[in-house]
Amino acid sequence: MAADRVRVRGLSVHRPIIYGNSASVLTPKERESAPDSHTHRWTVAVRSAASNPNSDVVGGADDLGYFIKRVTFKLHDTYQNSVRNIDKPPFEVSETGWGEFEIAIRISFVPEAGEKQMTLYHHLKLHPWVEGEGSGPPPLDQAVKLGPVHSWQYDEVVFIDPFQSFLNVLTSYPPTPLPRVSKKPVPYNAANPASLEASRGGVPEFTQAMEKEEAERLEAAKKAVIMEQERLRLRLHEREKELEVLKQQLGEA
User: Fold this and answer.
1) pLDDT value at position 213?
2) Which of the four pLDDT bands, split at 50, 70 and 90, describes residue 143?
C-alpha cells in the first residue's frame, strides 16, 4: 500500500458547513413571468460556515470543492428534474415556488477522501416567523417589507482517521475562522417581534459562540444516544435471561 493511502490513526479533522435556504417574495413584475401561483424565489445551498464580511450571502467564504465532489438536491416531485446534481461550487439550487417542503441533500466527497456519502434534510422555509400559533404567514405586501427569510443549519463534516494524502489536502485549505460575535443585524425570521425595526432585513452570520453551542448540543445528543443504547442493551440482556428460564421450565415439564 502506498504511503499516502495509509490512514492516520487517532486523528480527526472537521470542516464547518451550513445548509439551508434564503427566500424572498417575487415582485409583481417577476410574478407576471413566473409559473402560476409562484410567490417566492428561493435558493437552497451547502456552504462553508464562515461568511464574507462584504457580502449579503449567508456563509460561503470558502470554496468547498477541495473535499466535496457533488451535492445532490432532491426537490418536490412537482418540479421538473426534481433531482439536481451540482458538481462544482457554489453548491446551490435557485427556484421559484409557493409552498414549503422537505429537501434531501446528499453530499458526495472527492475520491481521495475515501468517505461514504452524507445525507442531510432541510425543510424549505419561505415565510417569516409570525407571532401566535396558527396565525399563518403574513400577506405578501407585508412580507416584502419584512425582507428576505433565512433558514440555515450549522453542521460539521468530520473525517476520522483520514488518508495521509487527503490529510495533506485538508491542511492545505484551512477553513476561514468564524468571528467571535456577529456584527450583522439579526434576520427577521429569527428575531424577537419586539425588535423588528432593528432587525428587519438582516442577514444571519455564524459565529464561534454558535459553533460552541452547537458542539455542546451535539455532545449532549451523543451522550443521550449512548445512554439509550446502554438501557436497551440491559433490557435485552434481561429478556434473554427470562427466555432462558422459560426454556428450562419447558424442558422440565
Assistant:
1) 72
2) confident
> How far, CA to CA in Å, does 228 sit from each of 40, 235, 236?
42, 10, 12
Q: Smallest Cα–Cα separation from 57: which of 22, 31, 91, 84?
A: 22
In sequence order, the 6+-apart residues with CB closer than 8 A to the CB of 230 are none
The full set of domain ranges for the chain reads 3-206, 207-253
- pTM (two decimals): 0.75
Q: Phi/psi of residue 234, each to 5°?
A: -65, -40
Element (H, E) at 25: strand 12-25
State whether residue 206 is helix, strand or coil.
coil
Q: How confident is the model at residue 186 (pLDDT cuts 50, 70, 90)?
A: low
Choose which CATH entry (3.40.50.720, 2.60.40.2550, 2.60.40.1970, 1.10.1610.10) describes domain 3-206: 2.60.40.1970
